[in-house]
Amino acid sequence: MPAPAVCRLDATEGSGEEYFLPPERLLEGNPRQTVWMHYTEGAGRFMAGIWHSERGRWRIRYTEQEYCRVLEGVSVITDEAGVAVTVRAGEEFVIPAGFEGTWEVVQPTRKRFVIYEPGDGSPSPEAFKK
Fold first, then answer.
1. Which residues contact 60 (CB under 8 A, 6 or more apart)?
2. What percent of the chain has pLDDT over 90?
3. Fewer CB in 10 Å around end: N or C, the chain?
4. pLDDT one-digit tens code per residue, 49-60
5. Is 71 part of any domain?
6. What is the pTM of this model?
7. DSSP code, position 91
8. For residue 21, what are the domain limits?
9. DSSP per-residue letters across 32-58
10. The CATH number of the domain where 58 resides is what?
11. Number of structural domains, the chain?
């Protein structure tokens, strides 16, 4: 078996996958979102890439751990208690598993993400579409 190779995370390599969120999660707008997956391990529980979203606000519920670095734009992440955190270009943060609330893109936002989904035997490579 060959040794694992280093995987470079190129910012915009290849064409991204565009999608829209399910209507039941939308609170404002209908933002087009794009994801560029740069790495997914075999079981789909660990992944990294770039995500971009137009303006809008939607409900989020995390089963995974996610590290983010905002590359451009401004977003507001609000928990169920109403505590809001504004994130801007250059800032880094982690959203823990179990977090529920809303994500609002105030200015179109692009972020680098790294996700770990411990899973229960049914890993989901769709985790970035939170």
1. 77, 99, 100, 101, 102, 103, 130
2. 72
3. N
4. 999 999 999 999
5. yes
6. 0.86
7. -
8. 17-119
9. -EEEEEEEE-TTSSEEEEEEEE-SEEE
10. 2.60.120.10
11. 1
